[in-house]
Amino acid sequence: MEIIILNSAEEMSKKGAEIVAAAVKRNPKAVLGLATGGTPVKMYAELIKLYKNGVLDFKKARTFNLDEYVGLPGTHDQSYRYFMNENLFNHININKKNTNVPDGLAKDIEKSCAAYEAKINAWGGIDLQVLGIGSNGHIAFNEPLSGIMTRTRKVAISQRTITDNARFFKSMNEVPKTAVTMGIGTILKAKKIILLASGSNKADVIAAAVEGPITHLIPASFLQFHPDTVFVLEKEAASKLKGKY
Ligand code: F6R
C-alpha cells in the first residue's frame, strides 16, 4: 500500500490522471476500472485535457465501471452510464462499445452480473481500478458487512449512503435503494488500484481503512490485502492518519 498526500483536490485529481495516463500509455488497450461520484470528476477533466492536448489516445482503451443504480436507464441524468458519458466518454476518442457499465435494468440481474464478471475475465482482467470511498467505508456499492469474496451482484444501498447521495437527486425519496456493484473480490483482482479521497468528511474513514484492522465493517480496509494499491489523498482527507507517510 502506498500513500500519497497532496495539498489540494486539484493536485489529487492531477496525480490520479497521471497514474491513469501512465497505464494507457504503457498499454493503449489497457482495461480501466472506473468510478463515479463527486471525487473523480476533476480527474476525468484532467484526462480530457490530456486527450485534447494530444498527449493521450483512448482509441483502444477499454473500461468497466464499478456500479449502477437498479432501475435507472442510461438516459437518466443520475445513472452512472449517463455520468460516464457526460464526464468522460463523450469528450475523448474511446469507442463506446469498449465501455461497460453494469446493467441496472437487466431482467435477469443474476445472469447479467455473471456475464459482467465473465467479460472482465475475457478481456484479461482490470489493469487499473479507480476507486472513491464512501463515508462509511464502502468501495463501489460494497457497504459495511460486504465479504471479501463478493462478486458482481445486486445489493441494498445503506441508509447512510442514500443520505450521502441524496445531494445528487431532487429529494431523498428519489435515490434508488438498490444497485448492481462489482464485489470486493472483483475489485481485489485488479492488477493495480488507486483510491482517491478529498475533504475532512473522509478523514475518519481513510484512517480506518489505511491504519485500522481489516474488517468487513470498513470494506475499504480489505485493500490492505492488495499488492499494489495507492491512496491518493488530499491533505484534509489524510489528516487523521497517525503514521508519517
Ligand atoms: C461510485 C462508487 C462509490 C463512490 C463513493 C464516494 O462509482 O463506487 O463507492 O466512490 O460513494 O463518492 P463521492 O466521490 O461522491 O464522495
Could you name the key traits of this structure?
about 240 residues; alpha/beta; Rossmann fold; seven-stranded parallel β-sheet; about 30% helix; binds fructose -6-phosphate
Describe what this molecule looks like in 3D.
The protein has helices at 9-26, 41-52, 80-87, 109-122, 159-165, 184-188, 203-211; strands at 2-6, 31-34, 62-65, 67-69, 99-100, 128-131, 153-156, 178-181, 192-197, 229-234. Helix 7 (203-211) links the parallel strand 9 (192-197) and strand 10 (229-234). Helix content is 30%, strand content 17%. It has a single domain, classed as Rossmann fold, CATH 3.40.50. The strands form 2 sheets. The protein has a 7-stranded parallel beta sheet, with helices on one face. The chain has a 3-stranded antiparallel beta sheet with strand order 4-8-7. The protein starts with a strand and ends in an 11-residue tail after the last strand. It is an alpha/beta fold and 245 residues long. Helix 1 crosses helix 2. The structure holds fructose -6-phosphate. Fructose -6-phosphate binds at residues 35-39, 66-67, 132-134, 138-140.
Can you give me a brief rundown of this structure?
The chain has 245 residues and is an alpha/beta fold. It has a single domain, classed as Rossmann fold (3-Layer(aba) Sandwich).
Number of helices: 7
Poorly predicted ranges: none
Q: CATH topology, anyone?
A: Rossmann fold
Which CATH first-tier class would you pick?
Answer: Alpha Beta
Fold blueprint:
Blueprint: E1 2-6, H1 9-26, E2 31-34, H2 41-52, E3 62-65, E4 67-69, H3 80-87, E5 99-100, H4 109-122, E6 128-131, E7 153-156, H5 159-165, E8 178-181, H6 184-188, E9 192-197, H7 203-211, E10 229-234
Parallel strand pairs: 1-10, 2-3, 2-6, 3-5, 6-9, 9-10
Antiparallel strand pairs: 4-8, 7-8
Helix pairs in contact: 1-2
The structure holds fructose -6-phosphate.
